[in-house]
Amino acid sequence: MKKFKLEIIYLILILNSILYGVGEAGAIFLLISPSPTINGFAGAGTSISTTDIYSSYYNPAQPQLPNGLSVQFSDTETDWLPNLASDLKYNYDVQMVGYSGFSLLDRYQLQFSITTSKTYLDLGEQIGMDEFGNPTSNWKSYMSSDATTYSLGIKSNNFPIYFGIGRTNKEATQVLSDQVTAGESGSGTSIDEFYDWGFRFSIDNYKPRKLQNIGLSYSFGYSKSNIGDPISFVDVDQEDPPPITSRLGMTFGGNFIIYNNLGIDFKFVREAEELMFERIANENIAKGYEDIYKDGYLGDIDIQKHLLNGEGDEDVIIHKGSEVTLFKFYSIRKGKHIDLDGKVEYKTSGHGIDFGEMIKSASYIFESPSIREMKLLNYVNIKYNSSKYSAEIGHPLDNISFDELTISIKNIDNIFNNDTKGREEELIINRDVQSSTNNNISLIGGINLSKWAGDDMDYIDEDEIENLQGFKLGIEKLLDNNLISGMTFSQRGFKVESGTSELEMQLNYLTGYLLKPQSVSTNLDLLLGFEVGYFLNGKMKMKMCFESDCTSESENIDSDDWKDEMDGNMIDYGIIIGGKIPLNEKLSINGTYYYGLNDLSSETVLQNRSYQIYLSIEL
Fold first, then answer.
1. What is the arithmetic mean of pLDDT over 171-190?
2. CA distance 311 to 305
3. I need a surface site. Which of 170, 176, 258, 509 has the fewest CB within 10 A?
4. Does domain 440-618 have CATH number 2.40.160.20?
């Protein structure tokens, strides 16, 4: 018969010690924090008031939902513990269907949602062995979980108060061996069922009477996760307890309006977490130890010590985090994870972009209300979030990064609510408005084909340099002086392929530009202008092959890495030249070339170059 591969057993022990500083619990992959948003807070997600659909992992109680009937979906994939092994992959897929706005007694609104998620930790391909140590066929080892969360929330129409509850049912599968050692009972696979439950109370954006440009927020949350029966594999007499975890957290926040409806939002999060069992020696039983489950909801968690003072101890893990959001669309996050017992301590960082809010913010900046009133924003939104762990050099958790794109389709129940007469009246009104005023606002979207140029690229053969594809999304406005101004999220970078090896680096910028159109015919305008970009984050991927053995690595680059470790310039600028071809009154296709003038860092002679192809749709 075949037996466990020693490397798998060693890997599980390492995972246990890294994730919780203990080696007693089973199904420890359930402790991996999946959210690229909440990982920016060092995993403090139990109390935070958020629109993040990953939040059901931390607390099944209701997240913030869009108006009406909504469908949201996202997924994230990362190289897990890249300093420990090169073939560990962690994937988390999540989908949510929700409804917000059901009236109750004309005083309250109910909201409810169903969230499904799948966790998959790929442990790589293993070499099977029989009981004599002879190799047999290869097989795949992995850990996975399928979860369904049911959430219900109620909020007051008169006060900014919300209360939510929820429950998650999950099935966890662990495949650590294809067969077991001869003479042992059980199998190398376990399938177990667990559940989570939690609640959250919040006061969102309370405005003092005499300070209407200031809003204050507070939220408090609790959850208990992975409740279920013990887990066993080969020997049922050596079963392990599930990683039952209690979490208690609170969040303080606020916002300050600076201009029109734009301002700065901030959050400070504290969370305490405890594994709700302990293993003690007992020589009176055959296995030499016993697992004692802790009573109650909090275990050793103390509100004063762990939450208010933020002090950790041997039993309780502390998560601290903060977030600053500018104009509702760009967020910067910092966090710290403290586990004194397991001697696991690391810092986190992250950022997020809400593209719908970015467009609305631009409408205030350009003083064009029609942008934020356009119907598309009522039904569709896109959000991007990323985060990164930073620990001691060589630590297994160092440089682990997460990123995701969430697509939201909302207000589905209202899309077809207007009757024919209402739509006809709306069309008449819209034509009258368009005839009397034209805001000249356009939504743009397309691709960038980018590479680097400069003296430091001269040593690379020209045929090894390829254009890296990225996307370009934003808005632009035709000003009264016939200049075109715009703001975009743009991806640039480079890609090099040499033999069987590849290297690529993607850089994300928030850019603003000014273009001068010059008509040369009714079907063509020449464009000339200037663009300035601010570095947001990036990602580097590398693949190296020696004969048939290939290894791949990827690493996220945040602003601190770019500025401090890579000595990168946060500002990029250059000139733009190209053309614009109108396809009809509302739609045009644009092709431009971006010629970067600023070096990417003070230590290199490298600049960005990009072919930009995008559509422009007038609103």
1. 68
2. 6
3. 258
4. yes
